[in-house]
Amino acid sequence: VGSLLSSYGWYILLACVAIYLLIQKISQSAAARRSSRPGAADAAVEPDLVVKRQEALAAARLRMQEELNAQAERYKEKQRQLEEEKRRQKIAMWESMQEGKSYKGNLKLNQQELESGASTSSTVPKPKSNKKPLRSGG
Protein backbone atom coordinates (compact mmCIF):
# COMPACT_ATOMS: atom_id res chain seq x y z
CA VAL A 1 0.00 0.00 0.00
CA GLY A 2 2.90 2.34 0.78
CA SER A 3 4.48 1.89 -2.62
CA LEU A 4 1.06 2.45 -4.28
CA LEU A 5 0.56 5.73 -2.38
CA SER A 6 4.08 6.87 -3.12
CA SER A 7 3.67 6.15 -6.85
CA TYR A 8 0.09 7.38 -7.42
CA GLY A 9 -0.62 9.57 -4.36
CA TRP A 10 -0.99 12.87 -6.20
CA TYR A 11 -3.27 11.31 -8.79
CA ILE A 12 -5.49 9.82 -6.09
CA LEU A 13 -5.63 13.17 -4.27
CA LEU A 14 -6.64 15.03 -7.47
CA ALA A 15 -9.31 12.41 -8.27
CA CYS A 16 -10.78 12.77 -4.75
CA VAL A 17 -10.91 16.58 -5.09
CA ALA A 18 -12.59 16.30 -8.52
CA ILE A 19 -15.18 13.85 -7.17
CA TYR A 20 -15.87 16.17 -4.20
CA LEU A 21 -16.39 19.18 -6.50
CA LEU A 22 -18.66 17.15 -8.78
CA ILE A 23 -20.81 16.06 -5.81
CA GLN A 24 -21.09 19.69 -4.64
CA LYS A 25 -22.17 20.83 -8.11
CA ILE A 26 -24.84 18.12 -8.36
CA SER A 27 -26.22 18.90 -4.90
CA GLN A 28 -26.46 22.64 -5.72
CA SER A 29 -28.37 21.98 -8.93
CA ALA A 30 -30.76 19.61 -7.11
CA ALA A 31 -31.39 22.24 -4.42
CA ALA A 32 -32.08 24.86 -7.07
CA ARG A 33 -34.62 22.58 -8.74
CA ARG A 34 -36.36 21.93 -5.43
CA SER A 35 -36.57 25.64 -4.60
CA SER A 36 -37.96 26.52 -8.05
CA ARG A 37 -40.95 24.22 -7.53
CA PRO A 38 -44.03 25.91 -6.05
CA GLY A 39 -44.43 25.14 -2.38
CA ALA A 40 -47.56 24.57 -0.32
CA ALA A 41 -47.86 28.31 0.43
CA ASP A 42 -47.83 29.19 -3.28
CA ALA A 43 -50.53 26.63 -4.08
CA ALA A 44 -53.29 28.87 -2.68
CA VAL A 45 -52.16 31.90 -4.75
CA GLU A 46 -51.47 30.07 -8.00
CA PRO A 47 -55.09 29.36 -9.07
CA ASP A 48 -55.92 33.05 -8.74
CA LEU A 49 -52.96 33.99 -10.90
CA VAL A 50 -53.90 31.37 -13.46
CA VAL A 51 -57.48 32.64 -13.64
CA LYS A 52 -56.31 36.25 -14.01
CA ARG A 53 -53.90 35.30 -16.78
CA GLN A 54 -56.57 33.35 -18.62
CA GLU A 55 -59.03 36.25 -18.35
CA ALA A 56 -56.41 38.71 -19.63
CA LEU A 57 -55.59 36.37 -22.49
CA ALA A 58 -59.26 35.98 -23.40
CA ALA A 59 -59.77 39.77 -23.32
CA ALA A 60 -56.74 40.29 -25.57
CA ARG A 61 -58.02 37.68 -28.02
CA LEU A 62 -61.43 39.34 -28.06
CA ARG A 63 -59.90 42.77 -28.78
CA MET A 64 -57.79 41.32 -31.59
CA GLN A 65 -60.81 39.55 -33.08
CA GLU A 66 -62.88 42.75 -32.99
CA GLU A 67 -60.07 44.64 -34.70
CA LEU A 68 -59.82 41.95 -37.36
CA ASN A 69 -63.58 42.07 -37.93
CA ALA A 70 -63.45 45.87 -38.30
CA GLN A 71 -60.65 45.57 -40.86
CA ALA A 72 -62.65 42.96 -42.77
CA GLU A 73 -65.70 45.25 -42.84
CA ARG A 74 -63.60 48.16 -44.13
CA TYR A 75 -62.15 45.92 -46.84
CA LYS A 76 -65.59 44.67 -47.87
CA GLU A 77 -66.90 48.23 -48.07
CA LYS A 78 -63.95 49.26 -50.21
CA GLN A 79 -64.53 46.29 -52.51
CA ARG A 80 -68.23 47.20 -52.80
CA GLN A 81 -67.30 50.75 -53.76
CA LEU A 82 -64.86 49.51 -56.39
CA GLU A 83 -67.47 47.15 -57.82
CA GLU A 84 -70.02 49.99 -57.91
CA GLU A 85 -67.54 52.23 -59.73
CA LYS A 86 -66.80 49.49 -62.27
CA ARG A 87 -70.54 48.96 -62.77
CA ARG A 88 -71.05 52.68 -63.36
CA GLN A 89 -68.24 52.72 -65.89
CA LYS A 90 -69.76 49.78 -67.73
CA ILE A 91 -73.15 51.47 -67.78
CA ALA A 92 -71.61 54.69 -69.09
CA MET A 93 -69.71 52.73 -71.74
CA TRP A 94 -72.88 50.90 -72.78
CA GLU A 95 -74.84 54.14 -73.02
CA SER A 96 -72.15 55.78 -75.12
CA MET A 97 -72.15 52.76 -77.42
CA GLN A 98 -75.94 53.02 -77.77
CA GLU A 99 -75.57 56.69 -78.71
CA GLY A 100 -73.01 55.77 -81.36
CA LYS A 101 -70.02 57.29 -79.62
CA SER A 102 -66.70 55.60 -79.20
CA TYR A 103 -66.65 53.86 -75.86
CA LYS A 104 -62.86 53.51 -75.84
CA GLY A 105 -62.35 57.25 -75.85
CA ASN A 106 -64.90 57.61 -73.08
CA LEU A 107 -63.15 54.92 -71.11
CA LYS A 108 -59.82 56.71 -71.46
CA LEU A 109 -61.40 59.95 -70.28
CA ASN A 110 -62.88 58.19 -67.25
CA GLN A 111 -59.51 56.66 -66.41
CA GLN A 112 -57.80 60.03 -66.72
CA GLU A 113 -60.40 61.60 -64.44
CA LEU A 114 -59.84 58.85 -61.89
CA GLU A 115 -56.07 59.21 -62.08
CA SER A 116 -56.19 62.98 -61.78
CA GLY A 117 -58.56 62.72 -58.82
CA ALA A 118 -56.56 59.98 -57.13
CA SER A 119 -53.07 61.42 -57.58
CA THR A 120 -52.09 64.71 -56.06
CA SER A 121 -49.05 65.21 -58.26
CA SER A 122 -49.52 67.95 -60.82
CA THR A 123 -47.91 66.55 -63.94
CA VAL A 124 -48.73 68.46 -67.07
CA PRO A 125 -48.55 66.43 -70.30
CA LYS A 126 -46.37 68.00 -72.97
CA PRO A 127 -48.28 69.17 -76.01
CA LYS A 128 -47.32 67.38 -79.20
CA SER A 129 -45.38 69.58 -81.52
CA ASN A 130 -46.23 69.67 -85.22
CA LYS A 131 -43.48 67.61 -86.75
CA LYS A 132 -42.80 67.51 -90.45
CA PRO A 133 -43.41 64.14 -92.05
CA LEU A 134 -40.35 62.23 -93.10
CA ARG A 135 -41.66 61.58 -96.59
CA SER A 136 -43.13 64.11 -98.86
CA GLY A 137 -46.73 63.75 -99.98
CA GLY A 138 -45.76 63.16 -103.61
Automatic annotation (TrEMBL):
<keyword id="KW-0175">Coiled coil</keyword>
<keyword id="KW-0963">Cytoplasm</keyword>
<dbReference type="GO" id="GO:0036513">
    <property type="term" value="C:Derlin-1 retrotranslocation complex"/>
</dbReference>
<dbReference type="GO" id="GO:0030968">
    <property type="term" value="P:endoplasmic reticulum unfolded protein response"/>
</dbReference>
<keyword id="KW-0472">Membrane</keyword>
<feature type="compositionally biased region" description="Basic residues">
    <location>
        <begin position="128"/>
        <end position="138"/>
    </location>
</feature>
<feature type="compositionally biased region" description="Polar residues">
    <location>
        <begin position="108"/>
        <end position="124"/>
    </location>
</feature>
<keyword id="KW-0712">Selenocysteine</keyword>
<dbReference type="GO" id="GO:0036502">
    <property type="term" value="C:Derlin-1-VIMP complex"/>
</dbReference>
<dbReference type="GO" id="GO:0030970">
    <property type="term" value="P:retrograde protein transport, ER to cytosol"/>
</dbReference>
<feature type="transmembrane region" description="Helical">
    <location>
        <begin position="6"/>
        <end position="23"/>
    </location>
</feature>
<dbReference type="InterPro" id="IPR009703">
    <property type="entry name" value="Selenoprotein_S"/>
</dbReference>
<protein>
    <submittedName>
        <fullName>SELS protein</fullName>
    </submittedName>
</protein>
<keyword id="KW-0256">Endoplasmic reticulum</keyword>
<keyword id="KW-1133">Transmembrane helix</keyword>
<feature type="region of interest" description="Disordered">
    <location>
        <begin position="102"/>
        <end position="138"/>
    </location>
</feature>
<feature type="coiled-coil region">
    <location>
        <begin position="61"/>
        <end position="92"/>
    </location>
</feature>
<keyword id="KW-0812">Transmembrane</keyword>
<dbReference type="Pfam" id="PF06936">
    <property type="entry name" value="Selenoprotein_S"/>
</dbReference>
<comment type="similarity">
    <text>Belongs to the selenoprotein S family.</text>
</comment>
